[in-house]
Structures are given as C-alpha cells and as structure tokens.
Design a protein that fits this description.
Two copies of one chain form a homodimer. With 450 residues, chain A is of the alpha/beta class. The first copy, chain A, has two domains: 217 residues, 3-Layer(aba) Sandwich (Aldehyde Dehydrogenase, Chain A, domain 1), CATH 3.40.605; 160 residues, Aldehyde Dehydrogenase, Chain A, domain 2 (3-Layer(aba) Sandwich). In chain A, 43% of the residues lie in helices and 20% in strands. Chain A is built from 16 helices and 17 strands. In chain A, the strands form four sheets. Chain A has a seven-stranded parallel beta sheet with strand order 10-9-11-8-7-12-13. In chain A, strand 4, helix 7 and strand 5 form a beta-alpha-beta unit. The longest helix of chain A is centred in the first third of the chain and has 17 residues. The first copy, chain A, is globular and about 80 Å long. The two termini of chain A are 37 Å apart. Chains A and B meet through strand 2, helix 10, helix 14, strand 13 and strand 16 of A and strand 2, helix 10, helix 14, strand 13 and strand 16 of B. Strand 13 of chain A pairs parallel with strand 16 of chain B, so a sheet runs across the interface.
C-alpha cells in the first residue's frame, strides 16, 4: 500500500477513535496484555532473530542489552499496561466551565490530538508503551522503531494491532513503518498526521524538526546544569552533582555543566571535583577553576586532574563521563548563563536559601527547574505520568516529560437553547460569565455511548 | 536599529519579565490606562491623520469605521484594561502537584511564553488590547498593525511602552514594527521569537504559516457549519441559522454551509431558506435541495430564489451574504462532511435529542462545537476570556478563542532536600507519587519578591 493510502486509513481511524468508548479502550489494553502473555514464544523468537543479526553485525553490548525483549521486559510492559488501565479516562475531562448566560453553558474539555507519529530507538518495549499510551489517550498511532529491532517490532505491532481491533478499536488504529525512508515520506502528509514525536540522536531529531511541516514535540539537546550557590551544603552539592552526572551519563537529563559560585569555592569545590574525578569524570574547567585547583601559588600539578577549557562553547552535550565546570560570581550570572547556553531541558540549583531558590525556579526559562534535587529526576515515570513518550523542550503545548496529557488537546463545547448572538449585540441580553464548577461526571457522560 | 538587534533586546526584556512582580504588571496597566486618558488629544490627532489619508486614498466606509479611535473606543479599551487588572495573576498558577517522595515535591506551573509577535489588522484599539494582554501574561511583545493606522499605532505604542517602563516593566518590553517587509525579516529570528499570532486575510495568514520557522497560532479559514437535524425545532433552526449567517457575515465565525437532514426538509426547509433569502442571503444549493424548492413535480420556479451548486467544493469561505446548502441523510454523514470539508473553527448542531447532540459534540473534530447556539458565539469576549488575541484552529497548545491562557505555557518545578536518582534506581527508596492539593498560594509565593 502507498504511504498516502496508509496514512489516509490511519487518519480515518483517528476520527473513529473519537467515538470509541473508554470501556473499549480499557478492554483493548486488557486484550493486548493478554495477547503479549499468550504469544510470548513468538515474540521472544522474533527478538532472538534481531539479537543474532545484531551480534553478527557487531552491535555493542549496551545496545544489545537495550534490544533484548525477555521475560523481565514482558513483565514490565504488562505492569505498565495494568497501570494505564487503572488510570482514570483522560479524554473528556472538563478543564474549564462557564455559564455564559441562562441556559448557555461553555466547557473546555480534553480530547485526543488525532494521528500521532512516534519515532523511537531500538528498544522494542518502547513500542508496547507507546501503543498503549495511544490507546488510553484515544489517538491513532504510526510507529517507527529502530531497524535493529525490525523482527521484534513487526511481531509486537502485529499482535497489538490485532488484539486492539478484536476488542473494538477501529481498523488501522496502529500503523507500523519499517524503513527510514518511510519517515521522510510520512513527514510530507501534514493533512493526515497531527503530531510527530521523534526520539533519537540530536542530529536525527534536529533534521526532522527542520524538514517537517507537521508540528514536532521533543528535544534534540539536553544541556543540563547544576548550579552550586554560595550557601550550598557541600555534602549535598557533591551528592547531587555526582548523581546528575554519573548515574547514567548517556541520557538527556544527565548534567553537562557545573556552575559554581565563587563564594562556594573555598568551602567545597576541591572535594566536589575530587569526587567527580574519582567517579571517572573528566573535567573541562574554566581558567578560574583551574587556578583554584592549582592552589594559591598558581604552580604545580592541580589538586584534581583536569583539562583547561579555553573555548567559549558552553552548549556541549557530552553524554559521557565528562563535565564542564565554570565559575560564576552571582545567582544572576548563573541564571543568565543557563538561559543563554542551556537547552531548556532541566536545570538544578543547590542552595539553602528559599529566596535564592525561588528566584532560580522563577527566572530559569527551562521546562524543568529543580531545587536541591538531581537533574536525573526529569522522566515521565519518576514524575508519576504513568509512562513517557518524550521530553519536550519547546514552550508550546507540552513541556518536559510528556505522558498521557501530552497526547491530548482540548475543544470548547457550547450548549444553548437556541441562543443567538444578535440578542447580545443589540443589548437585549447580557452575558453572565459565571464560572461553573468543573464537573468531570458531565464529561464522562459526553463520551459515553448511552 | 537592525532587526536582529531589536529582537535581541526584546528577547532580553522577555527574560526580565519573568522576574517582574504581578503588582508591577498591574501598576503598569494602571499607568497605561491613565496615560491613554491624559494623552487622548495627541492620540486623536494621530488617528485623524490616518483617517484623512485613508479617505483621500478612497478607503471603503466600513474600513474607515474600523480605523477610527475616538472617545467611545478609548472608553472601551480603558474598560478592558480595568477588567484585566481585576483578573487574578495568571502566571505561577499550580496546574498539577505531586509528592514524589518524602520532601520531594513536583509542581507544574503556568509561566509566560516569552517573546510573542502579534500581527493584526487596521483597528488601532487592537494594539491596546494586545499590549495589555502581553503585560498581564508577562510576555514581551512585538506588534505590527495595519499600515492604514500607522500614525495611530505609533502614537499608541510609544505612549504604552513608556507608561509601562515608568511603572517598572523592563526596557524594550514592547516593540512596534512599522512596515510589512519587517514581518518577513522577523520570521527569520526563531532564536528570539517564541510565537507568532497573525490576524488578517486567509492568504496572509497562510503565507506566514508556510514561511515561518517560529510556531504560529491562529487560523486562515473559517468554514463554519450549522447542521439541522431531523428533530430540530424549525423556529429555533431558522433563528440560529439566520444569526450564524447574517449577524456579521464578514467574520470568521459566520456560518458558510448549512447541512440539512433529509427528514427535516418536509418540516421546515422551505421556510428556513425563505427567511435566509429574505435577509438577503444568496443560496448555493445542492441538487436535492433544488428539487425540494421546485416542488414535487420538479417544474417551474423554485419556492425560494437559489443557484444550483454543481461543483464539489464545500470548503468555500464566502464572508458575505451567501451560503451553501446541502442535504445529508444522517448524523454520521453530517459529521463526516464537517470533518472533511470544515476548517476546525466552529460548528453547530440544532437538535432536540441529547444523545444526538452528544455524538455531534464528541465526534466533530473542531476547536469549538455547539449545540443549539449560533456559531457567532466563538469569540474571546463572549467566552469570558477577557479579551481575544486570535482564534486557533490547530490542535496543539491553544484551540479556539485565545485569551490570557493562550499566552502562557508551563514549567515543572521540583523541590527536594538533596534527593538523588541513584537511591531510586538501586531500590533504596521508592516513589510515593501522591497528588498534592493544588495550592495557588504557593505559586503566588513563587513569583513574589519577598
């Protein structure tokens, strides 16, 4: 089938999803979970094929590990599906309600976005997660996984699509793309696809953002900062910086830049940097940091191994055991630095003063801003969003970790009794504009079939 | 000053607005209102120059009327500013709050988008409205008004920018562009401008959407429908269709297409179309409607003057006393027609059955969907949003009339006591994920200076 035809059918499924009852969506999730369990053997077989091919092609061990879909992964995705089933229906929630005049009620309610294309990396368990989020949020989904997981993805998508249809979801609610070329084709059809959520390398996401006419949510960079203020507790600062940098350096929420207030330096800089170095972190330090490390006499070997950072590029995303370190003289300088060089992902301050924290949280213009906590918390699961489809660093629609809510939009509902505008234009009637209590029951009523 | 330099200063002002207290924003609005009152003479003078030029150039009477900024308009915009001052601070509202673990609190709070470019038509009062919405929502603003209102816009923008600065807003919080060429230049600077809200002709908005790398909110088309179901009350149907079409046909929320259920035809179609015709509406009717109008014998002059619509283009936006009329055989057909040919703006059903209305409201995929009310209600003021910066027909971020909320985004705040991820990764600690009560007081605290 041609791409246009496939996306046309998928878009039609998205419309049909609008009239699909929440009970059917949950039944579909049940059935998908059951099918994953009963067809485990064929999924594991397909996954083994992928792993053998990848091994033969010399894929690195960490990537091989990500590729595996085994009993443990199966149990995890099934537990994720159970969590989703238990969550309240996110569609049809009343977000705002107002009585405009007697008998004229306005409501803003949540509703699915439509057809969402999700492009993700090699982990086959991500496919299950994204398809399940699609079902719960009432969106039709186009998926494209990593090519290393081709066999696993095909087996999983086929099984999930069928189980969903058997439970009453519309035909073509789930479409799987199999080649990278198809992504380029897909991006042309903005009349069918409402949103693209890409995950992958910085270059890959940036290219999609640059070429797509379809709205894109996600992030290409994760240049996260930890700023240690002058009044920071040195032990807490060390613990947070270590965790932010080394707990999993390859992820987008790992810290790349340490900003240190000059007043803190005397109190705890050397021991902080020593701890990082001991954990295997290579330090790219600014001249003033280097000076401190060489001691007051500015001679001899530095107290901690480091390389002098002489360029002015403070937007490097190392994704590795490497960290840039920079002196700042004030909270203002730290905020300005982050707003200038950061990527709007996640930035944290370590300090004791509530007032200093408040200013940082308020003025740093990033999607997640923290006080006395590790940047590694920026994650949909840790935020309690149920699951995560991505992290959005743009300022519109969704910001930060996106869960179910990131897959929904809203519409305005107006219910009258024959109301016409002319009565208000001529002054015969006047608006009341009284806010109504938000009554979720009514919204549930709206989407129910009976 | 060059465009790049101007936008760089404006973007810096947007950052400074993040630390501007709500009290200062309200004081700025007070001062702006006061300045408009005390400098009225110079504003009226500038406006008279525009009107004289426009008259000399032969501008049509309705456009001349829109261009006027007189005592009445002044009173209106000042009353709008008073309304804004009285509204609660929309920045820093807690939208979601969750206890992740003991001492680790997550909040999602509303915050300004940053630097917003608003491009609007000739009405100079729109400039005052948009600048005021910018102040209250904490965004820095770039404005470009219609060229017919050049003198009025320059006088108003100058006065408003100065009054705002005097009250404590950052320098360059308001930038006025004066030529159309500057818009093209502005659209290149996606590193400075966060959002463009264009208003104007369909072609103008479509061109901006096609060429900008900056997110654009707004609409180019307003192909609105009224669907009259078989059980509709004929008198109510006539009143709503008349108001939707004729109350102000040049606006985007005027109805362009009337869909009539075949079962309704015998009960009230002729009298409904006769009322439209009597109001001066030219009817472009489908063959089945024409048949009804010519009577059972299918001969002689139609009961109501009409032209036979033979093409299949149901997406025409007349913006005039002209309406397309089409038979449909079912609710499903009406919904499918609207979803296919509509523009996602505003669509209304007239019917008695709650269940039929529910299906229409649920399955029509437009930003505003109505039951027994005129499409002309789609308007920020009528919705009680305080004022309107535009109507968004996209599905992301803002939909339908956009007021203050459309000018805000949110960020996630996480406040811990030294929390690190490793404790959770190793199972030493476990997330609680308990939803907290939404406490607006805390958010107010966040943005306050003391």
């Amino acid at each position: 089938m041609k791409m246009q035809e496939r996306l046309e059918l998928a878009a039609r499924a998205a419309t049909a999803m609008l009239s699909t009852d929440a009970a059917i969506k949950n039944a579909a999730l049940e059935r998908i979970s059951h099918a994953l369990e009963s067809d485990r053997a064929s999924i594991f077989d397909a996954n083994l094929k992928d792993i053998e091919t990848a091994r033969a092609e010399g894929l690195a061990a960490p990537l091989l590990k990500r590729l595996a879909f085994n009993e443990k992964k199966l149990a995890e995705v099934r537990s994720g599906i159970s969590d989703l089933i238990a969550m309240p229906n996110p569609v049809g929630r009343v977000l705002e309600a107002r009585l405009l005049d007697e008998g004229l009620e306005l409501r803003r309610i949540s509703c699915p976005i439509g057809l969402i294309a999700m492009i993700f990396e090699s982990r086959p368990d991500a496919l299950v997660q994204m398809a399940s989020l699609g079902v719960k949020s009432g969106n039709a989904i186009v998926l494209k996984g990593g090519s290393e997981a081709r066999e696993s993805n095909a087996a999983l998508a086929n099984l999930i699509a069928n189980a969903g249809e058997e439970a009453g979801l519309p035909q073509h609610w789930l479409t799987l793309l199999e080649t990278r070329e198809e992504i380029g084709e897909l991006l042309k059809y903005d009349q069918f696809v409402d949103l693209v959520i890409p995950r992958g390398s910085k270059e890959f996401v940036a290219r999609i953002k640059a070429t797509s006419r379809i709205p894109v949510l996600g992030h290409s960079d994760g240049v996260c900062h930890v700023y240690v203020h002058e009044d920071a507790d040195p032990a807490m600062a060390t613990s947070i910086v270590l965790d932010s940098k080394t707990q999993y350096p390859a992820t987008c929420n790992a810290a790349e830049v340490l900003l240190v207030n000059a007043q803190f330096a005397a109190r705890g800089l050397v021991s902080l940097l020593r701890a990082l170095s001991a954990a295997g972190v290579v330090l790219d330090v600014c001249p003033r940091t280097a000076e401190i490390l060489r001691g007051a006499n500015n001679q001899g070997a530095p107290a901690v191994p480091c390389t002098l950072k002489t360029d002015d590029d403070w937007s490097v995303e190392y994704l590795d055991f490497r960290m840039a370190v920079k002196f700042v003289d004030s909270l203002d300088e730290a905020i300005a630095h982050i707003n200038r060089y950061g990527s709007g992902h996640t930035d944290s301050i370590v300090c004791e003063s509530r007032e200093v924290a408040r200013r940082f949280l308020n003025e740093v213009d990033s999607s997640s801003v923290y006080h006395n906590a590790s940047t590694r918390f920026a994650d949909g699961y840790r935020y309690g969003l149920g699951a995560e489809v991505g992290i959005a660093t743009g300022k519109l629609h969704a910001r930060g970790p996106m869960g179910l809510q990131g897959l929904l939009t809203y519409k305005w509902l107006l219910e009258g009794q024959g109301h016409i505008v002319d009565d208000y234009a001529t002054g015969k009637k006047h608006f009341i504009h009284k806010d109504l209590p938000l009554n979720d029951a009514l919204a549930g009523d709206l989407v129910s079939e009976d």
